Amino acid sequence: MLKTKEFTIELEEIDAGENPLRLEGKNKGITELADSIKRIGLISPLVVAHGSDDGRYRLIAGHRRFAACRRAGLKKVQVRIIEGDQREICEIALAENLFRKDLSPVEMAVAVVALIKEGGMDRKQVASICHRSRAWVREQEEIVSWPADVQKAIHDGWLSVSAASNIALVPDDAHRSFLLGQAKEKGAGARTPAAWLHAYHRASKRRVSRIKMSAMDADKTSLFTKLRWTANSSCAVIVAHPDDETLWAGGTILMHPEANWTIIALCRKSDQDRAPKFFRALEKLGATGSMGDLDDAPEQLPLVGREVQDTILELLPSDRFDLIITHGLSGEYARHLRHEETGKAVMALWESQRLFAKEIWRFAYEDGDGEYLPRAVRDADLKTKLPNKIWQRKYDIITNIYGFESDSFEAKTTPRKEAFWCLKSVDKLQKPQKNK
User: Fold this and answer.
1) Is 39 exposed, middle or buried, given 0-12, 13-18 or 19+ CB atoms closer than 10 A?
2) Pairing status of strand 260-267 against strand 288-294
3) Domain span including residue 53
4) Per-residue pLDDT at 199 exceeds 60
5) Which of 105, 132, 163 is the last residue of a domain?
6) What are the DSSP calls for 191-253, one per residue?
7) Are residues 217 and 307 in the same domain?
8) Residues 353-412: pLDDT tens digits?
9) Would you report the helix, strand and coil content of the chain in percent, each value rounded to 5?
10) Are 403 and 275 in the same domain?
11) What is the C-alpha separation between 36 and 29, in angstroms, rounded?
């Protein structure tokens, strides 16, 4: 049972602990607050709990007031001591923080993650307390994991979380510092850092040895050969989940390293297991890309169409491509709502001319309403049988990079034939075809 008491204690008996306010900056108003405390005293008590050491206290809420009291030279301060288990204390800390108007996104993220790490809650419980979605909770966990220089930029107020999400993915400290400097000097919306990240990966990609075409059993009937695509064509693959890009189009990507491939996955950015695997898969595919964090909970509640569309535009480095590959209108098997929503969002963007492409291909697979594993539709507009070496490399990404066991759905499904509906064939896009 949570209990509270009010006392006056020595300021030096309070340990502020790790808090984002210890970062430089974000100190506006501390001097003014200190002057006010000198004149009229501390109106709202600091919130503390008993620390691990005898006679000392841990600051739970009121870090700015604490800093102002120190600056004002106070020796003793009024505090409200809360007594309860760690979970209750974390809830109090979060409740105090939620009502602070000056709370930075980094401070909020730290408070939310404390409920998980120190309070022993899961994401669903934290989401309920905060009246937010689990995807929002995952985003807070991600912010806490970002490099310190990126967190500081957010905390200081000159870099948005959406812009930071791309800069944080640059592993090279020097280059990331350069990008932060550019963002501070020139400003950066959400899409500008996405383009920077794309350029960084493109440069990194060029440093990796590219596989020679002669070693790939070049298929004379490949899709690109049929359509007379040229080298350096700009191609985007837009999928719901990391692994969809490899499962349904990995062979096509591997067979055409001459193209500039960009791959985006709309879900699982905060998935600490799947997200790193996605970027390792991109390296194997010779592609660049980024991830979003749309809700992908087991309930599969419908997403707002505009939310999916905006996420796609935010993740893509450009709105113009030679080719876009994405999910079919009815998905690839019965049935996955996120696959369907992704395909429909791409179509809506294309029809509204918010996204441009010479051609749009949709995955052409079906599973007989669950009667068998997904397979290429017989009369798809575009279809190719993958050379053995290409299929093996694709299978290795599914099993070795993504870690699916050989008897898993993904491993057993990995198609040897890849097939697509061409956007021009509108009649065939309306519903999937079954193999005869």
Assistant:
1) exposed
2) parallel
3) 3-163
4) yes
5) 163
6) HHHHHHHHHHHHHHHHHSPPPPGGGTT--TT-HHHHHTPPTT-EEEEEESSTTHHHHHHHHHH
7) yes
8) 899 998 899 999 988 878 889 999 988 889 999 999 999 999 999 999 999 999 999 999
9) 45, 20, 35
10) yes
11) 10
140 burial via Cβ count (<10 Å: 0-12, 13-18, 19+): buried
Position 407, amino acid: D
- In CATH, what number is assigned to the domain containing residue 86? 3.90.1530.10
Q: What's the rounded Cα separation, in Å, for the pair 1 and 88?
A: 9
Residues 141 and 253 in one domain: no
DSSP 90-117: HHHHHHHHHT-TT--HHHHHHHHHHHHH
Please check whether residue 385 lies inside any domain of the structure: yes
Note whether residue 56 is domain-resident: yes
The answer to whether 183 and 159 have CB atoms below 8 angstroms apart is yes
Q: In whole angstroms, what is the distance from residue 136 CA to residue 134 CA? A: 5
Q: Is residue 183 part of a domain?
A: no
Q: Are 112 and 131 in contact (CB under 8 A)?
A: no
Which residues does 231 contact at the CB level (< 8 Å), separation at least 6? Answer: 258, 259
Q: Identify the burial level of 87 via C-beta atoms within 10 angstroms of its C-beta, where 0-12 means exposed, 13-18 middle and 19 or more buried.
A: middle
| pLDDT tens sequence across 243-254 | 999 999 999 999
125, part of any domain? yes
> CA 324, 327, 330: angle at the middle one, nearest 5?
145
Taking the CA atoms of the chain, what radius of gyration do you get in angstroms?
26
Contact (CB, 8 A) for 238 and 325: yes
pTM: 0.50
